User: Fold this.
Amino acid sequence: MFHKYLYLLGERIKNPYLQKHLSQLMQSDFATIDELEAIQLKRLKKLLHHAKNATHFYKERLKDIDIDTMTLDDLKKIPILTKAELKAHADDLRNEPPGESLIKAETSGTTGEVFLFNKNIHWDASFRAAQYRGYSWYGIKPWEKSLYFWGFKKSFKDRIKIRLLDFLLNRYRFFDYTNEEFERAAKRIKESTYIAGYSSSIHMMAEYFKKRGYRFDNIKMVKGTAEKVYDSYHKAVKEVFGRKITSEYGSAEAGVIAYECPEGNMHIVMENVIVEEIENKAIITNLWAYSLPFIRFELGDYIVLDNETKCPCGRSHKIIKEVTGRIGRKIYGKEGVYSTININHTFKNLSFKYGIELAYSAKQYEKGKMLFEITKDESIDEADAKEKLIASAHEYFKDDLDVEVKFVEYKEGKSKKQKDFESFVDEEVTA
Ligand SMILES: [Zn+2]
Assistant:
């Protein structure tokens, strides 16, 4: 009980509207699709009226939309908002009336591309309420003891601040990923009911425990966020904790877009966001973003929606079948960041210098490493081509990128278009 009250105090300090949003979300947890769409339409109209009245940008953009009589389908008449547009018009889009409490947020993309913005208080509350509804699907109360794995280092001063707030929220956060820290984590895990954090960090810890034969049967949920969750991650986590990683899909701007239910389906938080799939791109409208309205925002992810499946969990919220990758990614070296054009140069150079022409697909799964999948061809001397390809890549990336080369069979009739570069390295995102 003590922790419940401390927790509620911590939440009140952070955001007084959180509980209200949570109880509303719990009420519509098993709503029908018609009921959910009615909620969306009502909130959409309110957001559009606000955006039109409060910003020059939307006054112009929404001038032909009759908001009062529109349907959800009419949303498609509004042009898509790109990331570049959002940044270029940010000052026009910001709506921060004096005296309104706002919460600072940022998306930190590739080097030098930090975008700062402020969230109105309901935007922030709706974001965290969506997380907590997800927790409830696993029988977890937000004040239960948790472990939190953060993906990057903070300054000492920030850590002290975070530690204090974490204490109020009954969670303990790890910043470092050393063996000593993992041993400390093992002790805390025995007293915790859930684990949350970056999937890669959780995976590292699970591998450490696996090797030492540690097993835990008290964890109700292992939540991975901000990064793609790979099958290899699930394997190690399942062995150690008896359950796979639960995915939370979202971003700093959009909030929690979808949350995975115990049946393994990613349900869209329809009460907070409208998700469209246009040419496989995720187009997001956050219904609570008033201080920076972004309507039909192109998030930068490829997704596949599933409009057929009726989930056995009983929820009618639409399902995101797959988040397939990020659009227009950069290549991350151990230190530097490179344009994908360097891959084209690498292969052109190989052809020009050595007369070797390869069909390739480049994949980056972690910073500082690159996998080149080369389509097998009888005319290629594989050992020779591999050596020369690595040499060619070295001309562009030096020692900053470890290159691995694999020869793979050509697959015909693949449903997905072969991409010349795919990155599975996530931009660091903070909320
Ligand atoms: Zn479900």
Notes: The pocket of zinc ion is lined by residues 261, 263, 265, 267, 311, 313, 315 (CB under 6 Å). The CA atoms of residues 227 and 426 lie 6 Å apart. The chain has two domains: 2-325, 331-423.
